[in-house]
Amino acid sequence: MSARPAARATARPRPGRLSPPALVGGLLLALVVLASLFAPLLVSSDPVKPSFSRRLAPPWGLGGSVAHPVGTDNLGRDILARMLHGGRISLALAAISVVIAGAVGIVVGLVAGSGGERVDAFFMRLADVQLALPVIMLAIAIVAVVGTSPAALVGVLALSGWVLYARTVRANVLTIRRLEYVEAAYTLGASDLRIIVRHILPNTLAPILVIGSSQFATMVLLESGLSFLGMGIQAPRPSWGLMLAEGRDYLSNAWWLATAPGIMISLVVLGANLLGDGLRDLLDPGLG
Amino acid sequence: MRAYVLRRLAQSALTLLGVSLLVFVVLRVLPGDPAKMLLPDGAPQSAVDELNRQLGLHEPLPVQYAIFIRSVVRGDFGQSFQYRAPALRVVTERIAATAELALAALVLTVAVGVSLGILAAVRRGTRYDYASTVLAVLGQSLPNFWLGIMLILLFGVALRWLPTSGFEGWRHVVLPAVTLAAFPTALVARLTRSSMLEILGRDFVRTGRAKGLAERAVVLRHALRNAAVPVLTVLGLQIGTLLGGAVITESVFAWPGMGKLVVDAIYFRDFPVVQTVLIFSATVFVVINLLVDLLYTVIDPRIRYS
Asked: In this predicted structure, what is the pLDDT of residue A286?
């Protein structure tokens, strides 16, 4: 996973630059993130307050008005406003979870990789346990017990994500420790902490970035999946997964209710996946 | 080999023990008062006291865990209060439906994923390659609950070709299986492609071609067999995705399997059923991955465990 021969990297067409699909992915992601971030400036409609006089209005161009370009939902709320405001919650939860999962995973990986055989075996068995349980099942069980607060959701998402980082960092620590210059640093009396901070972490940054970017997609999917099942963000707050679940009952007469939020989720996940693939090709060709 | 099998068996047992500990902590320690959690709302105090005694809740935590493990090993997962029957029986009654769905999805994943991957690798750089890559990227990006709803909208509501819920006959399994298979199929297609590309560049493939083997034999008999090991590993790990994905897919299509059972159980706070499903799923995952590990030696005789 690390210390690959340089030959593999040079086999790529244009080294040092993101591929066009990755750029498109980054752009998609940036677009959705910015639109969500500036939602209050972009849309004037209230995402939460019902307005029963304009229930189930179709999108603009299909019999609807420009005032509600994506139509309105079963309670007459503007769907575009809910999509953008919902994005703020979903994206923020996913981003915070990725950071926490990354931090926990990196620490566990470093400890497992440099803490001796027993510590290593303990954490790797723990990772096995985590992998053996389907994430969504464990998540709904935990959420059912501790509640659906945003903090609980972040906790559940982060819990599902640490293993990948831990395994990668651990493998890197084991490889890098055996490299000559690190052994030389040990011989010169460098402390474990110094070795980790100066030599191991910088060499592990690339795979961590790659995992983080792809995992952002997974977190968005997981959060919207939980909200879809009614175990994530609670009504009336807007959330993509929740909007989808609400729209399911109106498939035969108002298809846009369920269609619109799914497009947002797909765009974010597609963007993050493309960006993650591009970053992997660029930073760590051996990881794929 | 025997030592390896024994070691892997011990490792699997340890993993399952860890799973039971995790489930114990989540459902018995976190809630504070598990007896209230494991009983329906409004259960009389006498029932709470009785369950407290049965679960040994006055004992220290390690003893409680030992009691928990002892009943789990005996197959006693408690009573489902939603169905008023042993939780294990409630769950096993639903396994067939989930197995049917998961198997259909697995067949789709292998058939479509591996074919797409081979096609993309053999026709590298052509439109077949690009088309299969685009399909794979989409398959990995569309959330399965949305894909399911869109399939219902298209094939159920608009075209009226296929039923959108229910459980009778092969027509009912089509949409849920496609929904569940989308993500693993995409993953397998991409992996098969990269794995095949690597193998197709090897010397023995060139030798095969040089000695006049038909291209079909080179690709299917020689290259695919060598490319199969990483694909098989990922398939084993995807069992978790299938079981987890079944939770959402079954909810979308009202498929009466384990996934829908566990979601309903959470709504009814039927925790004995939840813990049974969790432990059962983990056991399936661990056993299948153990089998996959052992299968390597059959597919690739060069792999010898010591």
From this structure: 53
